[in-house]
């Protein structure tokens, strides 16, 4: 189609999805697109839609808009109905009506409205044992179709997790469907195109069901099983439009006697512990028509309120490609049966598919996984705690490819025991998983170790963006810890488009806040161990404000602010009530651990990460001041003048109290009551000294001094780490920033790289210099929080930083240093690609700049250190090659 297509105008994206999408929730979806170059003054865009209801005729409509309305254009037509399909193209014309380019088409479809959800949840009808390791069921049904399908959609959800088959073939490629939400209040329903999998005549649907987050054992300290319910079930609604014009509806239910269930070959499956599968229990053909299911039981209904089912905002967890082993070593075994150690060269969230062959009936293959090896070369599984990541396969004697379905693993190394004969790469197909997101950020430099650190940051992000943003992907935890994403969100939003992913999670944060009266430590919340009673703590709770603000700055979408306002103001109002009269948050939170402060500060002992050197009330007050500042700006964007001025006053009160309590300006030099990297860093980076330039510079100078005194070693935990380098740069101390970043001593980022890290670690010394694993019970090699340093790499090595929401204006201010001769970063902004790449030649900076249509780049030129001839120059859309003298 589209012979007139040019790359001048992109195909529109719908809401925050990328590509064609089925089952969206918005009836008036907003559209966004980009231009390859700035359209001429007065240019217009004609938006054409061809819309069609199942069984109906196509209707074509057009609307004309300004070419500048290309970011989140309000749907210019009548709202879409439930299940309606839309195919949209764009035509760009100049003010005289001459065609400049036509976009490719974008297809999307709305999901089921609540009144159209007629399926029930159905599952096992037998009484299940009272344990969390239950034998998992299959569900099936058969039906006839009067003609070949013209279009067919399967709407699928589950209490638990589900994988669907049609006529023996897998539906879609999503994993852990329907993902993790606060099931008590909302559950997502996914839509699939199954047109090509159906036939005229007899057809069958089959479903594998797993415990997942719904009733599997969740979390640490023994965890909690059956948290949302103790019965699992599938919701399936198939709608088929036949070539003869017929419409057939098939929906799961317990009353038409056509839906049957039986125990399947998955003996048990736990998200953390692994899956046990017995191929001898397979019943060939179970999801095809004609299968004899007379021995199967009728299904039972599992009650769930259909009004809580939602059409998703985010993309599913999907297969993201193959991971190849870099070595396979035989480590034991007798006779024909071998044990092997596999190294995949990269720690990440993945699962192995193995070609099981040569096994006699009843023979077992045992597969274990770990992030790192102990010093004796064995798999380090202690740190996994209960999350032992152990799969066990029992053969039925036939040849089969097998991969677990309802567990997830994160590992670099694996062992396989019980393997018959030689294990080769031909038998291994390891698949990588994370939520589908659009990549938007890149970085490279002339320093290979920095580039490796950046790749590690990417892998820790991907590993932990699995349905919700988690702390770690391997041990018995994997919770949506709010503090971790508070710190990492700006980095995440640069590397990937996380608008859909994080705004979906924010919904759950809000739901939990309403239930518990505060922002819980993690969302979805599960009462566990010392964390059983949600309580307001700084950084973690502040995510309620920082994450929406980050999304707004990255995407320019005011809706995320409007949707988050109750969450934001709820947090601000709650904590306002805890402040002392001088505005300092020094009241101890009412649960066993109190404030976590600069959590995992490198001086804290392995068994007590809360013992940080920086005062907790200082950290808490600084973070709260930042939240109140963001909240006042949000109020302004949302047109709430009174709230805006109320929060501005509150901010001033906190800052005044902060200065009075924590800053000593009596001497010639600035000193804070906590004379630590963290204290100065957050004060400067959060703008708490902006009203007093001497104080700000003094704090930056002291920070730089502390860095020099430490020999260029990091001295911060979660709270301070993202802000040390930015605060140094903001006060003209780039060389100290580089000395921290480029240090390879413990603790430092490149220490981890030097120790062979392939992801970013939870602790600076998750692995100690002698190669031993930190003895702390909480030691992960795949946490993204400390990887937040990548944001400084994007902003100050590459040189790109958004100044206005949605990158309308952005700063280009690369700071050379650290012996780097080249730096480059690019970001796919909502307006198109922005790029800053430089080379240092004879002390001169050759800067290559790309500015997308609709944006302005503010390039900082002149010497940073003297500050004297430093000035900003603006550059419009297009490509620019500049020569900037450094001094
Ligand atoms: C998690 C952290 C989290 C912390 C809260 C840990 O167990 O892994 O990343 O933020 O607890 O204190």
TrEMBL record:
Domain of life of the organism encoding this protein: Bacteria
EC code(s) of this entry: 3.2.1.40
Leader peptide range in chain numbering: none
Record domain Bacterial alpha-L-rhamnosidase N-terminal: where: 148-318
UniProt catalytic activity: Hydrolysis of terminal non-reducing alpha-L-rhamnose residues in alpha-L-rhamnosides
Domain Alpha-L-rhamnosidase C-terminal: 799-862
Cross-referenced Pfam families: Bac_rhamnosid, Bac_rhamnosid6H, Bac_rhamnosid_C, Bac_rhamnosid_N, Ig_Rha78A_N
Domain (Alpha-L-rhamnosidase six-hairpin glycosidase) ranges: 438-797
Annotated GO biological process: carbohydrate metabolic process
Domain Alpha-L-rhamnosidase concanavalin-like: from-to ranges: 338-431
Molecular function terms, GO-annotated: alpha-L-rhamnosidase activity
Hydrolase in keyword set: yes
Protein known as: alpha-L-rhamnosidase
Taxonomy of the source species: Bacteria, Bacillati, Actinomycetota, Actinomycetes, Bifidobacteriales
């Amino acid at each position: 189609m589209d012979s007139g297509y040019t790359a001048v105008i992109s195909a529109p994206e719908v809401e925050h999805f990328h590509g064609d999408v089925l089952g969206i929730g918005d009836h008036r979806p907003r559209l966004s697109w980009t231009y390859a170059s700035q359209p001429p003054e007065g240019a217009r865009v004609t938006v054409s839609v061809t819309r069609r209801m199942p069984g109906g005729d196509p209707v074509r409509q057009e609307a004309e808009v300004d070419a500048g309305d290309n970011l989140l254009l309000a749907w210019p037509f009548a709202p879409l109905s439930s299940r309606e399909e839309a195919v949209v193209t764009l035509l760009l014309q100049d003010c005289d009506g001459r065609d400049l380019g036509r976009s490719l088409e974008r297809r999307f479809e709305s999901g089921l409205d609540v009144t159209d959800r007629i399926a029930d949840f159905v599952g096992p009808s037998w009484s299940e044992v009272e344990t969390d390791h239950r034998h998992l069921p299959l569900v099936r049904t058969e039906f006839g179709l009067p003609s070949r399908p013209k279009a067919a959609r399967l709407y699928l959800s589950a209490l638990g997790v589900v994988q669907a088959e049609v006529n023996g073939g897998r539906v879609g490629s999503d994993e852990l469907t329907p993902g993790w939400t606060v099931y008590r209040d909302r559950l997502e329903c996914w839509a699939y195109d199954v047109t090509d999998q159906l036939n005229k005549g007899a057809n069958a649907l089959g479903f594998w069901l797993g415990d997942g987050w719904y009733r599997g054992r969740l979390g640490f300290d023994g965890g909690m099983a059956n948290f949302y319910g103790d019965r699992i079930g599938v919701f399936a609604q198939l709608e088929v439009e036949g070539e003869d014009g017929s419409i057939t509806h098939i929906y799961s239910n317990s009353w038409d006697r056509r839906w049957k269930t039986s125990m399947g070959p998955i003996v048990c499956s736990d998200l953390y512990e692994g899956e046990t599968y017995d191929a001898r229990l397979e019943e060939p053909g179970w999801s095809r028509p004609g299968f004899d299911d007379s021995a199967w039981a009728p299904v039972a209904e599992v009650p769930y309120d259909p009004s809580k089912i939602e059409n998703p905002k985010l993309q599913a967890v999907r297969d993201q490609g193959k991971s190849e082993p870099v070595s396979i070593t035989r480590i034991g075994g007798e006779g024909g049966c071998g044990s092997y150690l596999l190294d995949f060269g990269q720690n990440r969230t993945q699962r192995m598919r193995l070609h099981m062959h040569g096994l006699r009936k009843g023979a077992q293959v045992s597969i274990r996984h770990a992030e790192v090896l102990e010093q004796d070369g064995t798999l380090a599984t202690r740190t996994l705690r209960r999350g032992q990541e152990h799969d066990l396969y029992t053969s039925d004697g036939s040849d089969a490819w097998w991969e677990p379905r309802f567990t997830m693993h994160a590992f670099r190394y694996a062992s396989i025991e019980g393997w018959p004969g030689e294990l080769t790469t031909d038998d291994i197909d390891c698949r990588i998983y994370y939520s589908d997101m659009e990549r938007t950020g890149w970085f490279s430099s002339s320093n290979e170790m920095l580039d490796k650190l950046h790749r590690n940051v990417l892998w820790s992000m991907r590993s932990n963006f699995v349905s919700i943003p988690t702390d770690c992907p391997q041990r018995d935890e994997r919770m949506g810890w709010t503090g971790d994403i508070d710190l990492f969100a700006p980095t995440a939003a640069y590397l990937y488009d996380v608008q859909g992913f994080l705004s979906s999670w924010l919904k759950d944060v809000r739901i939990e806040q309403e239930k518990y009266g505060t922002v819980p430590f993690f969302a979805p919340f599960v009462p566990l161990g010392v964390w059983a009673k949600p309580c307001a703590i700084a950084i973690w709770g502040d995510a309620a404000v920082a994450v929406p603000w980050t999304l707004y700055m990255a995407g320019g979408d005011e809706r995320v602010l409007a949707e988050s306002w109750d969450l934001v103001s709820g947090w601000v109002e709650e904590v306002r009530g805890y402040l002392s009269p001088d505005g300092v948050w020094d009241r101890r939170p009412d649960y066993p651990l109190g404030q976590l402060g600069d959590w995992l500060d490198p001086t804290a002992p392995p068994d007590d990460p809360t013992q940080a050197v920086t005062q907790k009330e200082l950290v808490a007050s600084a973070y709260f001041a930042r939240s109140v500042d963001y909240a006042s700006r949000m109020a302004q964007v949302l047109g709430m003048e009174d709230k805006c001025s109320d929060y501005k006053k509150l901010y001033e009160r906190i800052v005044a109290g902060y200065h009075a309590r924590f800053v000593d300006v009596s001497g010639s030099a600035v000193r804070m009551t906590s004379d630590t990297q963290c204290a100065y860093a957050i004060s400067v980076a959060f703008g708490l000294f902006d009203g007093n330039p001497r104080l700000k510079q003094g704090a930056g100078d002291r920070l730089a001094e502390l860095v020099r005194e430490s020999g260029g070693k990091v001295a911060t935990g979660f709270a301070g780490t993202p802000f040390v380098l930015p605060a140094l740069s903001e006060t003209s101390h780039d060389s100290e920033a580089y000395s921290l970043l480029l240090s390879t001593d413990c603790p430092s980022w490149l220490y981890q790289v030097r120790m062979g890290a392939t992801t970013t670690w939870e602790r600076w010394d998750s692995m100690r210099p002698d190669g031993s694993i930190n003895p702390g019970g909480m030691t992960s090699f795949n946490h993204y929080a400390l990887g937040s340093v990548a944001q400084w790499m994007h902003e100050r090595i590459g040189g790109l930083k958004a100044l206005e929401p949605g990158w309308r204006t952005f700063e280009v201010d690369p700071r050379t240093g650290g012996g780097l001769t080249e730096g480059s970063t690019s970001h796919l902004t909502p307006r198109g690609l922005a790029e800053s790449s430089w080379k240092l030649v004879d002390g001169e900076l050759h800067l290559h700049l790309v500015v997308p249509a609709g944006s302005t780049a503010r390039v900082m030129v002149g010497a940073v250190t003297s500050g004297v001839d430093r000035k900003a120059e603006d550059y419009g859309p297009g490509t620019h090659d500049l020569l900037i003298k450094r001094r």
